[in-house]
């Protein structure tokens, strides 16, 4: 197994904050590694270092000569107005025929390939980014929160792609189910140190808990022994006959040391102020229609959500989950029917449009104190703020200087400190790390009020949800089963879709080779495929020669030399153009 990247004694600091402290790790080919750590621990910094976008303070990064990195960015790389095909050509430098062929592997065709890429859903945009990665032919993929805003079906398609991918992967994600599905090793960044564990994220966290319990038992034994020795020394150090024994015990006492339990002081624990435990209906919808003046998204919605339920809103992107949430929070008026909340329901909503409108004039401390329920102590505010990475020394920072992710965390912290009977949460885990998402799930499970939420984190959904409401095909209905049953159904549908697609492909090939056809067509197809492969190899060779000449041309300072290089390159350009035309002819023939 070849080492693709070796991180050796790397240190990286920002001011007084030391993100990497003599960190070392070797990343080999074919490894699939889940990369976890607290928000702010330095995961994104390490990715930027590996991408050579940042330098290290000390130490070194050794890269294999054959390393080809592919990076799936969390942020939007698209330009206004460009199509998916335009982006693929711009990003990869490959011709349109090659980009179109690779895009087809992700079902990017027609309007998905040629229409404005910014108008595609997050799931389809991720497919475009994946196609872009493949065009660079990487052997080491780095994925930064790839499941954010992906619906369940697209997550499963991405999982299938990564399971079959033969190169190495380094995946940053807060989604435990996703990491568990594709990663066999776990890399943690904690206190500047990198630790690689041979096991998935669940096994890693279980192992960490076992080690912590062992260290706590060891420390308890050490403390008991210390007390015993201290008592003996106090009684005997003044006695003439026992002073030497006391000195010997003092040496034993000096050798007793406690094991440092990393993370014990910073364990995330979120406590939501409890509300009155109510019975009956929290939300009732009768013949409700939702959408916009020129578009009905769903109608004939009749359902009830009881007090104390934790209802997960599920469905593919674009089906209307956000429209439904906006309607029940009065952000969007219903088109028809009735919507009624129970008596004295105190509703709080966490969504993107909420946290973008936080008051810029307030500090973090001001905001949390104003949002907290009456009687909330300063210590409780500090504890929740710390859980969302707002340390006490940063609480006087003004909201106007916070990033989008910091605003999101602040808004969620404020909601959890308030005394609300109904919590409506749209993707609450998107800006949180694995441990904080787990703590949020535990807090919601203990919450006596009602929770209506969406999330793309399957582990979180399965942990929290007691009810499932599906938004699909113009309807919003209570699902007959729990979230695990819903997940099983969607997995089966995706698997069946793969089988049908494969069967259709086989049937199409059989029809081409055995059905009624022009005489001798089978031989023509075989020859066309051979010629197509030969043309692809020839184009690749000519492209390489053209690039070499072009590099010399760009560096040439002598006009005569530049003219000679241009003359040498022109026949290659003409030949590549002719080959591409022939490639398109063959491709269209084989697609008939």
State the major sheet.
6 strands, mixed
**β-strand amount:** 15-25%
CATH C-level of the largest domain: Alpha Beta
Q: The CATH topology of the largest domain, please?
A: Rossmann fold
The CATH superfamily of the largest domain is identified as: P-loop containing nucleotide triphosphate hydrolases
Based on secondary structure, the structural category is alpha/beta
Question: What is the CA-based Rg, rounded?
Answer: 30 Å
- How would the global form be characterised? globular
Strand order of the largest sheet: 5-6-7-3-8-9
The CATH architecture name of the largest domain reads 3-Layer(aba) Sandwich
Low-pLDDT runs:
504-510, 512-517
Question: What count of domains describes the coordinates?
Answer: 4
Question: N-to-C terminal Cα separation, in Å?
Answer: 43 Å
Pfam family, one: ABC_tran_Xtn
Region (Disordered): 498-523
Protein name: Putative ABC transporter ATP-binding protein YheS
GO molecular function: ATP binding; ATP hydrolysis activity
Structure description:
It is a single chain. With 592 residues, the protein is α/β, with parallel strands linked by helices. The protein has 4 domains: 3-204, P-loop containing nucleotide triphosphate hydrolases (Rossmann fold), CATH 3.40.50.300; 205-266; 281-480, P-loop containing nucleotide triphosphate hydrolases (Rossmann fold), CATH 3.40.50; 521-591. It contains 19 helices and 18 strands. The strands form 4 sheets. It has a 6-stranded mixed β-sheet, with helices on both faces. A 6-stranded mixed β-sheet has the order 14-15-16-12-17-18, sandwiched between helices. It has a 3-stranded antiparallel β-sheet with strand order 2-1-4, covered by helices on one side. A hairpin with a 2-residue loop joins strand 1 and strand 2. Helix 6 (152-164) packs across helix 17 (483-514) and helix 18 (521-555) packs antiparallel against helix 19 (559-591). The two termini are 43 Å apart. The model is unreliable at 504-510 and 512-517 (pLDDT under 50).
